[in-house]
Amino acid sequence: MRKVPLSKKQKRAEKIKKMLIHAGIWLAGLSIVIALGIFAVRGFGIRTVIIDQSMNPTLQNEDVVLLNKLCYKIGSPKRMNVVAVRIGTSENSPTYVRRIIGLPGETVQIKNGKVYVDDTELELTFNDAVIENAGVAEKGVTLGDDEYFVLCDDYNNNRDDSRLDSIGIIDSEQILGKVWMIVSPFSRLGLVH
Fold first, then answer.
1. 139-158 pLDDT tens trace
2. Same domain, yes or no: 130 and 155
3. Residue 139 sits in which domain range?
4. Domain total in the chain
5. What digits encode the pLDDT tens for the residues 63-105?
6. What is the pTM of this model?
7. Residue 27 and residue 84 in one domain
8. Rounded distance, CA 14 to CA 119, Å?
């Protein structure tokens, strides 16, 4: 069977059709890349600057860190996660970076300079100093269904954490995200543990 040659008009129509298909594929790919970029930046690229020494030595004053806002939308905060929390209900309320020590339903107590969760001593690998001030946790604090107990890593020089009534117990809505990476200064670039 012999193939009938295409006319100039048909060839031009075929060429335009192929160009439109390629342009559509290119635009679809570009749209996907832009959407993924926006998703990554909005979920993993939220930057915040550390403005105190409360998380020493893990984080230092003027470290720039990235927050993962999405991880707690699909899962729950875990013990020892370093998180950014908003104290207050306004968008302008202060934001602190602290470490989660107690989880919902647990009882946190600080006695003899050590942290106990449900009467079991918790090993604090980020600081081995004896805790000098137990604050409200001296008698034990039982957390509700959606509550977390947070602590500064430099707990003897800073007390702006759940030991104070002014900060208190944190609920999940106050947690802005997990601090996962130091991006500046470059000499401290790395993951946060």
1. 999 999 999 999 999 999 88
2. yes
3. 48-191
4. 2
5. 999 999 888 888 999 999 999 999 877 778 888 999 999 999 9
6. 0.78
7. no
8. 77
